[in-house]
Specification:
This protein is mainly alpha-helical and 181 residues long. The protein has one domain (8-178): Up-down Bundle (Butyryl-CoA Dehydrogenase, subunit A, domain 3). Helices cover 64% and strands 9% of the residues. It is built from eight helices and three strands, in the order αββαααααβαα. It has helices at 7-17, 38-43, 50-57, 62-70, 75-93, 99-125, 142-166, 169-178; strands spanning 22-28, 33-37, 136-140. A three-stranded antiparallel β-sheet has the order 2-1-3. A hairpin with a 4-residue loop joins strand 1 (22-28) and strand 2 (33-37). Helix 1 runs antiparallel to helix 5 and helix 1 runs antiparallel to helix 7. The longest helix has 27 residues, at 99-125. The radius of gyration is 21 Å and the shape is elongated. Residues 47-51 and 58-66 have low confidence and may be disordered.
Length: 181
């Protein structure tokens, strides 16, 4: 059985590694697929296949070029990978009262991932009036969902440990001295 103290660093490590997998699948109407990894969202670089490049180059609408330029660097993706890395490092370094902090970091990672999705979806909504919307489809892929799942595991498991520690008799006795009833 995996010891409880290793759940947090392993969860944060898996969330950080998930950024190297596909986060977005861009499907062109002809069936061609271009994938964008989480690291490409963090660094702002993208590997586009020739179909998507042709779509960008032949676009007569400025909204398409706006989506292409602004979809590269995603600040919420940067925040999420920093939270995953920081959570992993802190869970290995901190020994006392780490659960509350790591729980907050885990839930902040989930929040950053959801904000990243909201940003991408709102950029995509710019194209809703353009005919390109029917030609291109965005789907969230394996890496995105794995990162969210393991941020949740890290956050909720640490908060669960913290709540369990608050309910122990020694902790209640320590806090009852500070706050008399």
């Amino acid at each position: 059985m995996l010891k409880r103290k290793w759940v947090s660093p392993v969860s944060f490590a898996i969330a950080a590694v998930a950024f190297f997998f596909s986060f977005l699948n861009l499907t062109y109407y002809s069936g061609s697929v271009s994938t964008v990894s989480g690291i490409e969202l963090v660094t702002g670089t993208r590997t586009l296949n020739s179909v998507f490049e042709e779509l960008i180059e032949s676009a007569s609408q400025p909204a398409t070029l706006l989506f292409y330029k602004s979809a590269g660097l995603n600040y919420f993706a940067i925040a999420a990978i920093l939270l995953a890395t920081g959570g992993m490092v802190l869970s290995l370094l901190l020994f006392l009262q780490q659960e509350m902090l790591l729980g907050i970091i885990g839930l902040a990672g989930v929040f950053a991932m959801l904000l990243m999705r909201l940003q991408i979806d709102s950029q995509w909504a710019i194209l809703s009036t353009v005919t390109i919307k029917n030609l291109l489809n965005i789907e969230y892929a394996f890496g995105y969902w794995i990162a969210i799942a393991f941020f949740l595991v890290a956050g909720l498991s640490n908060l669960s440990v913290y709540i369990d520690q608050l309910n122990t008799p020694t902790t209640r006795k320590r806090y009852s001295k500070r706050f008399p009833e």
